[in-house]
Amino acid sequence: MAIIFNNLYCAMEESKPSVLYVDDLPVNLTLFRETFKNDFELSLTEFPREALKILEEKDIQVVVSDHRMPEMTGIELLEIVAKKYPDIRRYLLTAFTDPETVIEAINIGHVHGFIKKPIVANEIRSTIKDSLEIYLLRKKNRQILEELEKANAALLNLDGLKSEIINSITSEIRNPLSRIMGTLHMLKSKIKGDELSEAINILDESVFKLEQFSNLARQISILKSPEFSLDKQHVSMKKVIQYGSIETREELKDMDIRLKEKTNPTESMINGNSDLLVSCMINLIRFAKEHTANKGEILISFIEQNGELECCVTDGGSNYTDALFGVLKDQFSSGDKPLNFAMGIGLAASQMIMETHGGHLKFEETKGGKGLMKMTFPHE
After folding, report:
1. Which residues are within 8 A (CB) of 353 and not within 5 positions of it... i.e. 6 or more apart?
2. What pLDDT was estimated at residue 3?
3. Distance, CA of 229 to CA of 252 (rounded, Å)
4. pLDDT of 212
5. Domains and CATH numbers, the chain
6. What 3-state DSSP class applies to 309?
7. Sequence-separated (6 or more) residues with CB below 8 Å from residue 206
8. How far is the C-alpha of 205 from the C-alpha of 247, rounded, in Å?
9. Contact residues for 30 (Cβ-Cβ < 8 A; gap 6+)
């Protein structure tokens, strides 16, 4: 607590307390200004409605108002101040402290104290100094509460993200796990010849998918870690495409899908992490594979236009519906969409990778009904 109050005193010493004084008599305003001009940052006015305008424009910490004024009473003014600016300290200046005025000032104006006429300079200095300690402490407490609320919200979002990842992985690995268990039961029945070969292929494919989802989950966990820092270097996008092609070659070969590359003759470089960008490319090729029929074609191109660098992966246009096109275009129309694991953990990881690099994913439907996914980078 001592540290807090030391900080408060330091804050008070750095700048003069801001005080708004309202009095319909100009002579009183002049007297107040000359008495406290070296102590406070003063704002003075004869009119309560002008005082409300000053409060909208300036950061006022204390309001001192005369009570009996023709435009509105000091209690009426302080009632408005209490509702609109509850942190501001409020004092009523009056020569009459009859019980009715005191009760009204406390219940309606929510005043923090009274200042008697004629004013005594040292008493006002002491009153405002003590009051400002409370003002600054309340302001600091409110800032701490706001920071705690933001931190709690971030934790809740992170917990929700963890749940989404777990649910997504559970959903996507359930099928390969079922196939593994079923195949193991088949092996126990002494299968022979081509049946055994097919069973082994199923096992191999299912284990591969499990490994793939495990790697993606680990990658997302690392990207979301507060300790994560992007290790950037100059990366050739031509090599990113080549490495992505190599990693997915066998998968595409099983479906007899041809991967066609169309890149710029000049070398296009990105300032980023090579491993993450290759991972993003692999995810997009695998997504394109899901929407390309056997013996079809996936086209990868890299262009520079409109001040941006775009790496485009165009699939064969299979397994799409109008609804799916709509969801994909909405999800990947800009860089401000939250992660959507319903689109698959691969695309979610790719979205995070692109956002980490200051870019984003875009999805478009081509005239031929094909899907086109873009890795879009800002031009550096």
Report:
1. 223, 276, 277, 279, 280
2. 37
3. 33
4. 67
5. 2-119 (3.40.50.2300), 229-380 (3.30.565.10)
6. strand
7. 176, 177, 179, 180, 183
8. 15
9. none
